[in-house]
Amino acid sequence: MTWLVSGGAGYIGAHVVRAFLADGIDVVVVDDLSSGKAEFVPDGVPFVQANLLDGDAVRGALAGVSGVVHLAGYKYAGVSVERPLHTYTQNVSAMVSLLEAMDAVGVRNLVFSSSAGVYGTPTDEVVTEETAPAPESPYGETKLIGEWLLRDQAAATELHHTSLRYFNVVGSGDPEVYDASPYNLFPIVCNLLSQGKTPQIYGTDHPTPDGTSVKDYVHVADLARAHVAAARALDGGTKLAPVYNLGSGTGTSVRQIMDAARRVTGIDFTPGETPRRPGDPSRVVANGDLATRDLGWQNTHTVDEMFASAWAAWPANR
């Protein structure tokens, strides 16, 4: 049993690769290194540096593979508004190319990295898989289209699939792998604190207990194990639901994250406060019961543990 992980040199992808290896499953990585890092790929794992639009390279990488975990793509929701064509090319056209290659070589199993971005700003107090999608960025739109592609390809062929809708993925399960995104809260806070600078809170007037926005944070190692469970289920012929939310069911506010950062690092700081940014939702929390039932999904880390793992892996702190 061997699985291909597209985007396996990225922050999440590298953790997925490690989770597969820990479960005794061989892995092949395809990544164009546009945001991934070659050093994140473990020694001994076959690595093909290619974009998914390169059909020949992808077909070659799929030889002997049981299934695909598809994580590769352009993942910056805010910037996708400024670069819609690039976002659609990397997230939709590239996925079409991957599905064509899989069909050509007879690979029938796929686990798709979707996103909470498909929900936009939900009005539900707790988001479930029944919450109506309403994406508000090209990024969210492309993730929803990716789910549609799988649905339609499965209707036409023998493709077996599921899509995992991620919420806010944080932390590190390996001190050599870290989140380098310039847009995510944890790396922003780690970067600023490691430079002796003060993090900012954007918006303290939200209708939440402490006035700051509340989001659903999940540890990347827990998320990675859900991919292994989905892959094993599909490989064994189990029919999975088309989508699963990977959320904890509880929210954590930005101020609570700052408090955790203070406790974990021992750095006594008072975050700055600035007006909220347009479009920032006040609360996005997901129900993960379906993933718990079918995939054994659990978010096993406290907020302090999540931040501590991110802080330990941050390059300036090693």
Overall description:
This protein has 10 helices and 14 strands. The chain folds into 2 domains: 2-169 and 217-246, Rossmann fold, CATH 3.40.50; 171-215 and 248-317, UDP-galactose 4-epimerase, domain 1, CATH 3.90.25. The protein has helices at residues 11-22, 55-61, 77-80, 84-105, 138-156, 185-194, 220-235, 254-265, 289-295, 303-313, and strands at residues 2-6, 26-31, 47-49, 67-70, 109-115, 160-166, 168-170, 200-202, 214-215, 217-219, 243-246, 252-253, 272-274, 283-284. 38% of the residues lie in helices and 17% in strands. The strands form 4 sheets. The chain has a 7-stranded parallel β-sheet, with helices on both faces. Strands 12-9-14 form a 3-stranded mixed β-sheet. The chain has a two-stranded parallel ribbon with strand order 7-10. By secondary structure, the chain is an alpha/beta fold. The model has no long low-confidence stretch (mean pLDDT 95). Strand 5 (109-115), helix 5 and strand 6 (160-166) form a beta-alpha-beta unit.
